[in-house]
Amino acid sequence: MMESLPTTVSAKSDRRGRSSKSQNNSKPSLILAFFSCLAWLYVAGRLWQDAQYRAALNTVLKNNYDQRPKVLTVEDKLVVLGCKDLERRIVETEMELAQAKSEGYLKNQKSVSSSGKKMLAVIGVYTGFGSHLKRNKFRGSWMPRDDALKKLEERGVVIRFVIGRSANRGDSLDRKIDEENRATKDFLILENHEEAQEELPKKVKFFYSAAVQNWDAEFYVKVDDNVDLDLEGMIGLLETRRGQDGAYIGCMKSGDVITEEGSQWYEPEWWKFGDDKSYFRHATGSLVILSKNLAQYININSGLLKTYAFDDTTIGSWMIGVQATYIDDNRLCCSSTRQEKVCSMA
């Protein structure tokens, strides 16, 4: 019994030694596992970051691809060249048309009278929708009608009442004018002009353009519907001027520009006429005569010409910028008391 005791003590001592070694070996394992976790987290983070970089790079590349110039095929180049050539030809055609207009090559023009001479004049008498009685008065006095009107045209003089269209196209006002024209055949209807008192300055552009497009004459005459003409006296006056280019003929005047709003002759753009507020020299609106080349100038440039509150000053403003010869003829002062005039106030 006493001999077995050292063996038991020795066994217990061995177990304590192994337990101490096991505890010493577990510490490095924990440290290694900790660093392994850190390494894994680092690698995972880098992989995630690289994935973000790749996604951003793909987006940039895609945007650059979409914005880069596309490669044109042969067909595309031909289309582009064809469009440029068409545009060039359109510009050339417009220039040729303008030149043709300026030289008098206009469609459907009557250019000579029965005597073989170039037509002398186109006389446009302004009228409105409510002026039926005035028109009949003129037809019964100085203005020929029916066969007499045709014979006058054979002499080289055309007379037409000039009117635009109603603001309500095709209404009873338009229909009455159409019916009257079918019966009398003495209207020049301005299809693109709206007939209204405030539109009279624009009516000048439409009248001269339509007249020069329809008839090739020496002169184009605008007459208000409150004027009676001595027709033979007018024809004689124009005959003496036949062949004169650049003629701007009328009863010339100038005067103060009215700046007070609400006044009868108020000019909304008065500030354009200088500090003296005075109109330039111009023919009174009752009767204005333009030679062919000046009427053509209005026709060709009608889209660019500025209008003012009144038609006489409007025409005068256009004449300032061209080589016009101002002819002040007292016989065209319709409101004067002189005896040798060719017009009078109706």
UniProtKB/TrEMBL annotation:
<dbReference type="InterPro" id="IPR002659">
    <property type="entry name" value="Glyco_trans_31"/>
</dbReference>
<keyword id="KW-0472">Membrane</keyword>
<dbReference type="Pfam" id="PF13334">
    <property type="entry name" value="DUF4094"/>
</dbReference>
<keyword id="KW-0333">Golgi apparatus</keyword>
<keyword id="KW-0812">Transmembrane</keyword>
<feature type="compositionally biased region" description="Polar residues">
    <location>
        <begin position="1"/>
        <end position="11"/>
    </location>
</feature>
<keyword id="KW-0808">Transferase</keyword>
<keyword id="KW-0464">Manganese</keyword>
<keyword id="KW-0328">Glycosyltransferase</keyword>
<comment type="similarity">
    <text>Belongs to the glycosyltransferase 31 family.</text>
</comment>
<comment type="pathway">
    <text>Protein modification; protein glycosylation.</text>
</comment>
<protein>
    <recommendedName>
        <fullName>Hexosyltransferase</fullName>
        <ecNumber>2.4.1.-</ecNumber>
    </recommendedName>
</protein>
<dbReference type="InterPro" id="IPR025298">
    <property type="entry name" value="DUF4094"/>
</dbReference>
<feature type="region of interest" description="Disordered">
    <location>
        <begin position="1"/>
        <end position="25"/>
    </location>
</feature>
<dbReference type="Pfam" id="PF01762">
    <property type="entry name" value="Galactosyl_T"/>
</dbReference>
<keyword id="KW-0735">Signal-anchor</keyword>
<keyword id="KW-1133">Transmembrane helix</keyword>
<feature type="domain" description="DUF4094">
    <location>
        <begin position="26"/>
        <end position="103"/>
    </location>
</feature>
